[in-house]
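Suppose you are handed a protein chain with no further information: no name, no annotation, nothing but its sequence. What can you learn? This example shows the usual starting point.
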Amino acid sequence: MFRIWIHIVLILRLHFINTVIKWIRILLTHKYCTLEKPFKRIIIADDHAVVRTGMQLILDETTDMKICDDASNGYELIDKLRLNTYDLVILDIFMPGKDAMDVLKEIQSNWEHMPVVIFSMNPDEIYSVRMIKNGASAYINKETNPQQIIEILRAVLSGKKYFTQQQSAMLAELVIEPEKKWSVTSLHETLSDREFQIFFMMASGLKKSQIAQKLALSKHTIGNHRGNIMHKMNFTTNSELTRYAIQHGIIK
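A reasonable first move is to predict its three-dimensional structure. Written in structure tokens, the prediction is:
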């Protein structure tokens, strides 16, 4: 019995420490958001606390911009955008709930001049052009070094768009050859944005009913999209689709 009580006390103590840290962080964030300071206010949306905290630590070294708020999913981000004023959004691609593509489109619709920087672990060639075409001001890989991240954010906050050399080449190719038929190794590029969302969810193992719920669509609509995806990519089974997604780094 004594050991049980010791265990309970240790758990409560750990919970108390975590709660104190959480409230200190909230108070510091609130200070950044409310005090009149000559820096740009940034909100980051990422479902990993370590990424949100890491980005805050990187920008704490600067005097012209700060992470003044964060969100762990798309719905929370949209709610905070409605309540507060920010100068830039840093957005992860894959979070629980609302898909990043839908979040990006909603931001473009309701906050037309709000710059959005995509922050992702996924390769440039898979997602960057699709996100940039939908209004993202930059696409940063999470392996980018901190100083370069700061420079990219400053460029975007000054009203510019930032593209890597590879991204610029891919965008130029789309402009020069908009009707280009993609090679067999890039079949996913033939998909529309909605089809790509559903393709990713299917490859991740979600069932039709789960996809319908997440995207607020009927199962019949999801079934039609699935048919189009399988036809465009010349697949007959979900296992073929999943194998392709793994081979091309779309899922891990």
